[in-house]
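Figure S7 source data.
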Amino acid sequence: MASDRKSVLNAMMAHQKRLADTSMRKLFAGDSQRFRKYSATCGSMLLDYSKNRIDEQAMAALFDLARAAGVEARRDAMWAGEPINVTEGRSVMHMALRYGGTEPVKVDSKDVMPQVREVLSRMKKFVGQVRDGSIKGATGEPFTDIVNIGIGGSDLGPAMVTAALEPYTRKNLRAHYVSNVDGAHMHDTLKRLDPKTTLFIVASKTFTTDETMTNAHSARAWLAKALGEKAVGDHFAAVSTNLEACASFGISEDRIFGFWDWVGGRYSVWSSIGLPVALAVGYDNFALFLKGAAAMDSHFLTVPLEENFPVIMGLLGIWYRNAWGFATHAVLPYDQRMSRFAAYLQQQDMESNGKSVMLDGMPVDYDTGPVVWGEPGTNGQHAFYQLIHQGTSVIPCDFLVASNPHEEMGQHHQKLVANCLAQSEALMLGKTGDEVETELKAAGLKPAAIKALKPHKIFPGNRPSNTLLYRKLDPATLGMLIALYEHKVFVQGTIWNINSFDQWGVELGKQLAKAILPKVSGEDRGNGHDSSTSGLLAHYHRLRS
Ligand code: G6Q
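Tokens for the predicted glucose-6-phosphate complex:
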């Protein structure tokens, strides 16, 4: 961290020391305005961050940190198309993909908006034609199933969004996602499908990713076996920056949807990588999804830091990671349809900020990205929340909940909301020894039983959380939420002075897998590995023989 950054960081540490023994219970009791002070709105979305271990001075120190780290300047540099992804020499312009304004948006002094709009309008046409049945399979039947073949950024975003927007999908056009090179994934997906009515989308920025290409070739063989080689063109589309490789796979030009190297894989759901989403929910809903993200972009770009959702959430994450030493962060949507949200954010956050060198290549001497994890509530409550409430690690949480469900079913939604609010309240308040004792006495327990049980029933409390409350998980709201977390990760990466846009850490395993494959297949019986890897290979061959 640069030295000015370091001194502001030290100031932040001093506030941690000051607040180390202050409970949030006490802070709430002493300030009736606490919710008002520590909440913000973006459209109708509310961010309540009052249940955090903060006070005015600590927040001021955090905003100072954001300023000293140059968050605003770097944000503006990103939007100006500067190649802030320095190790790959690339701009980071996913915001252009959802920009709805009329100003030019430049990368390398070229306005990229005409090409963005051109691809969107081709997507719109294709989506309309598939959905109205005017584009058909080789036997003249309309498509009923879409299989997206991609991995990482070419899978997690669209898969998560499709699941989240289930109420906007149609029964007669189902989207499936195959990512894993484990043949079981493709096998179990195809098992239920009819080749005559199946459309495959091969989604790969590079069109070289081994898992995706292996899956694409298997899908192609399945289709060609049933309908003949000639049918491939009718049943495949592609999304890529590598247009030549798509063409040589046999995909016709009008079925290839491009995007650009200034769109990082994990930021690509807004590009043509979103094609399966648009097919599943309709182009108009996809456009609303982009619009929601654009609203969050505009908030991030223009609202003062003190009111800025991604800045506030990013700073609180830094506060807990660096000043308090909390190593993980849980994201807990009270929405079953967001079951893939945490998995999506794991890539978003951990691939972006799981770094240990700064932009100049020097090692960091502070912690960077936390482990991000989560599951939808209320399921998590009956599983891992025990540890969040009473475990030895403090885990800051984000709770996400809508005021309105898509389906009003009796009291379901009220119960869902009540549980969500109860959890953040319980985490903050905890339950003291005295409170436990009073409860147990009232339940008629004898003093000896009370003494034995009391320590087990105490909740330490003072466990931090944010709550995001929005009207409904509609396409625009989902777009806002994703963009919010993208920018939060950006804020943190800027403060940590790391490159949030490369992912060299995924390379070594890929390289070694290539080298080990001939040893697994038996083509090469040589050794040359550590004794563990050699031992595993030997046992593998014994089991196979
Ligand atoms: C994301 C990463 C990575 C990438 C996949 C798939 O930011 O770059 O997850 O999306 O490795 O890559 P392709 O789209 O090139 O197949």
